[in-house]
């Protein structure tokens, strides 16, 4: 299951994050940069105070890409007893050398390579990290003022990154100014962890202190593993909605309709030869009938996000040429029905450049009774279980 990583500045914030349910306590000084490091002594004390109640990690700072500087710093942080050491790899011709020099340390400490979605990350580096014994790879953002992870690494590009990392045996983390609505969009990729700082702080400002209420709200959106000695805070309705558990929403509450209208994308589509090798504008209109889980919807736990529909369409379109509008509509309908709360979906696909206005197809599909959730299937595949 996906773990929640909370970046904290020291022992006091660590306790807040622990009591609000974070799985990984990550030491970081947000005032000192994207991967700003806290004092090594603070890492040591906090790790000792956490005392195995949670996994711990620490960043090494926004270091120059100089192999010897990085090696020395990673050794210093590793010696604190922290479980994971996170190392930022900024674009440089020295990246391979900086990774390679860490080989001996990676044999005794779990290292996480951090790439930055807003700095044109080179995912070819993943095989370098795997060869050098890294435990995992994480994507973050370097400039927190310039957008969230999904602004730089859109959902359609995430499967390629996740699949590649998984194929190399690397754990996968996603972060970068993530906010609550990003969580249901990222969970289907089954990352090993999602990392947060800004969303846990007062007024969403990552340089303020973390706030217990904000941590709890984020925690509630990530299905939680049962932890010994802790009353479970699992929201079973959420789990059901994500396909992690049998059961479903309260049918007595009936359904709502969510919709996406006039969503236009360039698509490689068409059966004629003149339609191959280039894109044409296609308009999507989708309405999904969703089971309600509460009569008082308050946050992301209680809804099916229309972002999931748009993300799905983008991912399907990114797979390449499709011959028929009908086939495209079927794929979109199947994707939307993967959410077990969707009972019926209408999909209209219109090519906008072939006729006076639009030409296309509209289909309606219902969830077949007892149809096993595709999300079940995805998660049953464990680490390989990502949308492709
Ligand atoms: O490791 C994760 C981060 O600390 C993310 O920080 P952020 O949510 O402020 O971008």
TrEMBL record:
Belongs to the DHNA family. It comes from Neomesorhizobium albiziae. It catalyses: 7,8-dihydroneopterin = 6-hydroxymethyl-7,8-dihydropterin + glycolaldehyde; 2 D-glyceraldehyde 3-phosphate = 4-(hydroxymethyl)-2-furancarboxaldehyde phosphate + phosphate + 2 H2O. PANTHER family: DIHYDRONEOPTERIN ALDOLASE 1-RELATED (PTHR42844:SF1). This is 4-(hydroxymethyl)-2-furancarboxaldehyde-phosphate synthase. InterPro entries: 4HFCP_synth (IPR007565), Dihydroneopterin_aldolase (IPR006156), FolB_dom (IPR006157), GTP-CH-I_C/QueF (IPR043133). Pathway: Cofactor biosynthesis; tetrahydrofolate biosynthesis; 2-amino-4-hydroxy-6-hydroxymethyl-7,8-dihydropteridine diphosphate from 7,8-dihydroneopterin triphosphate: step 3/4. Catalyzes the formation of 4-(hydroxymethyl)-2-furancarboxaldehyde phosphate (4-HFC-P) from two molecules of glyceraldehyde-3-P (GA-3-P). The keyword Lyase applies. Residues 368-388 are annotated as: Disordered. Its EC number is 4.1.2.25, 4.2.3.153. GO terms for cellular component: cytoplasm. GO terms for biological process: folic acid biosynthetic process. Residues 376-388 have a biased composition (Basic residues). Keywords: Folate biosynthesis, Lyase, Schiff base. Residues 258-365 form the Dihydroneopterin aldolase/epimerase domain. SUPFAM superfamilies: Tetrahydrobiopterin biosynthesis enzymes-like (SSF55620). GO terms for molecular function: dihydroneopterin aldolase activity. Pfam families: 4HFCP_synth, FolB. The keyword Iron-sulfur does not apply. It is an enzyme of class 4 (lyase). Coiled coil: none annotated. It comes from the Bacteria.
